Amino acid sequence: PLFSSWSRVQLSDVLAGAGFGHQQVHHVAEVGLGGVHRSIVLATRMRTLADTVGPNMRLLVCGLNPSLNAADAGYGFASPSNRFWKAATAAGLVTTSRDPTHALHVDGIGMSDLVKRATPRASEVKPTEFRDGLARLDRLCQWLQPRAVCVVGITGWRASIGDGTAGLGLQPITLG
Questions:
Q1: DSSP at 170
Q2: Quick one: how many helices (H) and strands (E) in the chain?
Q3: Helix orientation angle between 127-144 and 8-17, rounded to the nearest 10 degrees
Q4: Where are the alpha helices (DSSP H) in the chain?
Q5: In what order do the strands lie in the sheet with 149-152?
């Protein structure tokens, strides 16, 4: 009953963030239970990463999409050659490497992806997937209101906003 008051878009966003795809969401009123509203969800677990997010995030780090290696490891930026965790730890952004749950609960750093579908290379993601992912990210930011968002990957960011010339650094658009 808790989720029956959520719109289909809200419930779909949470399911996608949890790593579920191919969703069918049905809100129904069960007549025999005094009009109690329930949500029935049919969804398929995807080979992806679940979002690690919550209220009061000081920063939401958003990757382009999970690599197959990251999806199998259970955390983003998992490839041994990826410099994210080493740089984030050295910069004092996170206090423990390769642990998104610790990053959220101790450091106030959440993690998500623009596109939840894992691929061997981000170049396999279609521009429409990036745009749809940005819309979900915008709704996530509106809901949870992180103080800042950092999208890691300029090529996917450019595809998301439809501007092939967007530069690095502070962007002119606001999420949420």
A1: S
A2: 6, 5
A3: 100
A4: 8-17, 68-73, 84-90, 100-105, 127-144, 154-161
A5: 109-113, 59-63, 149-152
Token code pair at residue 150:
């950092």
* Nearest partner of 167 among 175, 157, 176, judged by Cα: 157
Range with the poorest average pLDDT among 27-36, 56-65, 70-79, 87-96: 27-36
Q: Rounded to the nearest 5°, which phi and psi values hold at 93?
A: -65, -45
Query: Which of 12-16, 30-34, 44-48, 72-76 has the lowest average pLDDT?
Result: 30-34
Query: Do strands 59-63 and 149-152 pair parallel, antiparallel, or not at all (unpaired)?
Result: parallel
The two tokens of residue 72 are 């199998």
Phi, psi values for residue 151, rounded to 5°: -90, 125
Query: Which amino acid is located at 78 in the chain?
Result: A
Specify the length of the chain in residues.
176
pLDDT category of residue 41 using cuts at 50, 70 and 90: confident
